[in-house]
Amino acid sequence: MKQTTTKGRIMAFLMAIVTVFSLIPILGGATISAAISSYKPSNSTAMSTINQRMKNGSGGTYYTPQMWRSVSRTKNSNGTYTYSSKTNGICTWCAVNNLLNRRVALENSSPASKFFTMKETVKVLSGSSNYVEYKPNYIWIGNKDWYTDLYDNTFVNSAGISYKARHYSFASTNVEDKKIQLKKLLDEHPEGVVVQFSRTFNKGTKNERTENHGFVISGYYYSSGKLSFYAVDTGSSASYASYKDGKNTRLEDAWIGVGTKYGNNGDADKIIQGLTFYVSLVPEPISIDLTGFKGTLKAGSPYGIPGNISSNANIQTVVARIYYGQDQYQGNVASVTLTNVGKKELNTKEKIGGKYIDSISMGSLRQGDYYFEVKVTDVNGNTLTKRTAFSVR
Questions:
Q1: 236 plus 307 within the same structural domain
Q2: Rg (the chain; Cα; Å)
Q3: Counted domains in the chain
Q4: Which site among 45, 132, 161, 360 is 20 to 30 Å from 270 CA-CA?
């Protein structure tokens, strides 16, 4: 057996101290959720982690949305609608949903119950008043433009996870410059980025048209010294199947590369040349979890409001309100405001200045449909509002 010398024991002790103190800047002064959100593994490590965590069941398939499609409609004389048979794939929105869930998988070791549904993503991008799902995976989205309505949207799902999607243009039109920028983006956002490809055909003629396609660039690698990329593209059943097998498809092998629609002929540089903008995610600095709140209450009965709020910075104010229907604010019977909270985590039963969120009276509400809203502002001016629907019967 190898003997441990006194010098060896001293060195081991010093190394342990260094290890402990090296963790302090990561966890000190931050909530656990904030520490997780700041986790940035290498892109290759992130891809492996995401692939493992997005497995769905023993079959080894992966959680990724089937291509959803949008349709047009006409109103009939009897007030009903007829939906067209011609469809357009809302590929960019599917890519955003993929991106959201890749981030969820990266930050949560058991993400299955925390994924964003495609319906949650579509509702944000379309606006609830313009969103009609007339059959599974087929929707009418009013006058919304499915590939440009991506500016600074905040997505919140039923598990209380919140991200903001930000839309940017590439700094250069040069292919090599775009590659360098994409690599930097993937180092900063290891879950990937959504990109928009655009190509104009028959330019300058009466048949001129522009085709667009959105997908996720999920990682990078080097082949013979050349910077290359992986993609997750729901544009066809072939690329969808390869993703379900747990493989990140090479960019040139994804549908954007092999599909005949765009004429890229498996040339990755042609694809990168056609990229016009990208969308990346940032975790919200504030989180509101109301998942324990029930959807239907009995008229006249008291009911508690379970929930938790966390923030990377101290919370300044919390305003909780109840709206009747979608618009009318019933302030006299259903509001409470907490000021100068001064802490980073708060549950609905904690008193601040003698007030607490759970003090809102539910028993005085008449029968009808309502929204419960919580608006949180931190000391840095960041604000997050979350609304959840409920009914009194």
A1: no
A2: 25
A3: 2
A4: 45
